[in-house]
Amino acid sequence: MRRRDFVATSVSLALFGRAAPRPFRRARVRFGCAAITWDGKDREAMDDISALGFRGIQLRGSAVTTWGERPDELKNLLVERKLEFVALSSGNLAFDPAQASNSLKQHVRHARFLRDAGGRYLQVLEERPHGHMAVPEDYRYLGGLLTDLGKRTADLGVPLVYHNHMGGFGEKPDEVARLLDAADPRVVHLLLDTAHYTQGGGDPAAAIRRYGDRIRLLHLKDLAGSHFIELGRGSVDFKAVFAALDDIGFDGWGVVEVDGLADPNANTPKESGAIGRRYLESIGRWNDAS
């Protein structure tokens, strides 16, 4: 073989053997809005969230109180408004072993209601008892409880998502890691809350890259000091968040959420939701799922 042929062949082999870069794939995010801002006025929340153009809604315990025996009615109301029932906030998973059995049964009942109403994900969190210093055994115990619940809801066709939350055992990034490591990843998924993770000292973009395979949906809300606030009005770097979602090829739901109006006299829950939509439009992400 002549030298120039040898060189050309060697270059071709080197290029052929080099791993091709992963093609860029923009995240497909379907945007929903959480009804928590409407403080139990779920019909008004459905009307407003639909009118704002969101594709889904997350409801809370008030929905179970109202439609618990009539899930088909809720399902029809959502269909009429072209809203998907993205998730149900099922409340705290009891840490006290004496309450664990009843707590698990309650969440399973909620999962059954969610399924019958056409919903997708059951959200749970937990609360650290006041003054309690967490030890490794706490995470093993909670991981076991979450796994138990996740298996039960999976049997109903409802994936379980754990919501990282201030005031819980999964407050700081290393605590979220301990809890997730202790739970079975096949049945316990993550709902990443951008504001809670930031307040806990973490970087939500880094969390997305770390837990990409376990994230099923996100709570998109901003943080100003210690207050949760509308998108674009705080310190969360949402451009970095969406860049990370692009990097992992995320295909799922992002629920815009503000726990309550910072100034109830300044705007309404609908206007709060509109602020979120306008911000997503301003950074070119509103039509991500189209």
Tell me what you see in this structure.
It contains eleven helices and ten strands. The chain has 290 residues and is of the alpha/beta class. The strands form two sheets. The chain has an eight-stranded parallel barrel, surrounded by seven helices. The protein has a two-stranded antiparallel sheet with strand order 8-9. α5 (97-116) runs parallel beside α6, α6 packs across α7 and α9 (204-211) packs parallel to α10 (238-247). The chain starts with a helix and ends in an 8-residue tail after the last helix.
Structural class designation? alpha/beta
CA distance, first residue to last residue: 54 Å
Total beta strands? 10
Mean pLDDT: 92
What's the quick description here?
This protein is an alpha/beta fold and 290 residues long. It has 11 helices and 10 strands. 45% of the residues lie in helices and 18% in strands.
Output the keywords.
alpha/beta, globular, two-stranded antiparallel sheet, eight-stranded parallel β-barrel, 290 residues
Q: What is the strand and helix layout of this fold?
A:
Blueprint: H1 3-17, E1 28-34, H2 42-51, E2 56-59, H3 61-67, H4 71-80, E3 84-92, H5 97-116, E4 121-125, H6 136-155, E5 160-163, H7 173-182, E6 188-193, H8 194-199, H9 204-211, E7 215-220, E8 222-224, E9 227-229, H10 238-247, E10 251-256, H11 269-282
Parallel strand pairs: 1-2, 1-10, 2-3, 3-4, 4-5, 5-6, 6-7, 7-10
Antiparallel strand pairs: 8-9
Helix pairs in contact: 5-6, 6-7, 9-10
